[in-house]
Inverse folding.
C-alpha cells in the first residue's frame, strides 16, 4: 500500500474546543488546503507534494473529519457551521505562525474556505475553490437534476438520527458510494487514502459530526450567507475556481459567472475530471493552483 505524504510533519493542535489534525511541509508563502466529504487531508497526497516545492503547505482535517476531534453537535447547528470550521482553521494557521495565507478548498472544504475569506479577509491572500458554487446558490437552484445528483445533501440533513443509523450500519458501502460514478476514467483513488476515509467513518462520532455539517449547511450557514448578501459582503481577495468538466457543477453552472456574484476578482477553468480533481487529475490541478498563487503579490 502507498505511503501517503512522506516527509510531512504531523500536528495535533488544540484550537478552542477542538483538536485539529494537520500535516505540514515545504517552504515559501503559506497555503492551507481543506478537504471535502467524505474525505480528509489525505485527499491532497498527489497535489500537496507538488505545491510544497514552492509553498509552505498546511493540510488540515476539518472538525469532525479524519483525525480531528468531533465534538457533539448542538441543536442550533453552530458547532458545525462553516463559521466555526473557518475559525478553527484561522486559529490553526496562527498556531503554526502564519498570519496571512492562501486557502484552497475542495467540496466541503471549499465552503469553509468561502466563509473563511468572508469572515477573516485580513488573513486571506487569495482563495481557490474546487468543484463548487456557493452553498446559497446551490440551494436556490434546486431542481430534479440537483436533487438526484446531490441527494446526500438532503439525506444527511434529515432530523433525528436516521442518517447516522443507516451509515453506521454499513459505513464502507456508504463511503464507497460517494466515489462511484463520480470520477472520470479508471477508479482513481489510492487504497491507502480510501482506508483513511473508511477508517474515520467507522467512528460513530465522525458520522454524527459530518451529518451535522450538512444540517448546518441547510440552516445556520444559509442564515450567515444571506446576512452577507444583505450586507453586500463579497470575497475581496482573488478567487480561483476550478471545476471538473464532467462534474455536476461543470455541466450545470456557469461557474465563473456564478462566483462573480460572490467575489470581486474571479478567474478559473475546467479540469478534465469529474468531482475529485485532486485525485483524478492531480497534475493539471496542481499546475493551476501553483500558477495562481505564484502570481500573487504576497
Amino acid at each position: 500500500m502507498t505511503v501517503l505524504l512522506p516527509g510531512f510533519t504531523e500536528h495535533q493542535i488544540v484550537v478552542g474546543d477542538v483538536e485539529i489534525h494537520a500535516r505540514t511541509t515545504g517552504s515559501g508563502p503559506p497555503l492551507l488546503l481543506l478537504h471535502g466529504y467524505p474525505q480528509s487531508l489525505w485527499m491532497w497526497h498527489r497535489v500537496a507534494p507538488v505545491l510544497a516545492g514552492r509553498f509552505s503547505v498546511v493540510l488540515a482535517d476539518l472538525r469532525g473529519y479524519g483525525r480531528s476531534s468531533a465534538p457533539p453537535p448542538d441543536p442550533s447547528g453552530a458547532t458545525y457551521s462553516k463559521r466555526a470550521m473557518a475559525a478553527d482553521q484561522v486559529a490553526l494557521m496562527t498556531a503554526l505562525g502564519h498570519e496571512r495565507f492562501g486557502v484552497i478548498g475542495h467540496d466541503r472544504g471549499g465552503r469553509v474556505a468561502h466563509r473563511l475569506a468572508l469572515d477573516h479577509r485580513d488573513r486571506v491572500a487569495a482563495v481557490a475553490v474546487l468543484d463548487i458554487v456557493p452553498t446559497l446558490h446551490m440551494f436556490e437552484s434546486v431542481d430534479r437534476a440537483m436533487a438526484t445528483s446531490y441527494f446526500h445533501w438532503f439525506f444527511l440533513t434529515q432530523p433525528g438520527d436516521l442518517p447516522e443509523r443507516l451509515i453506521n450500519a454499513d459505513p464502507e458501502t456508504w463511503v464507497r458510494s460517494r466515489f462511484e460514478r463520480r470520477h472520470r476514467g479508471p477508479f482513481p483513488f489510492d487504497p491507502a487514502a480510501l482506508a483513511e476515509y473508511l477508517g474515520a467513518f467507522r467512528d460513530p462520532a465522525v458520522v454524527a459530526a459530518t451529518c451535522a455539517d450538512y444540517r448546518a449547511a441547510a440552516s445556520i450557514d444559509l442564515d450567515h450567507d444571506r446576512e452577507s448578501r444583505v450586507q453586500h459582503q463579497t470575497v475581496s481577495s482573488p478567487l480561483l475556481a476550478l471545476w471538473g468538466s464532467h462534474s455536476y457543477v461543470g455541466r450545470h453552472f456557469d461557474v465563473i459567472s456564478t462566483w462573480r456574484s460572490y467575489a470581486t476578482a474571479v478567474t478559473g477553468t475546467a479540469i478534465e475530471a469529474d468531482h475529485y480533481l485532486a485525485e483524478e487529475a492531480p497534475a493539471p490541478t496542481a499546475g493551476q493552483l501553483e500558477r495562481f498563487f505564484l502570481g500573487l503579490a504576497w
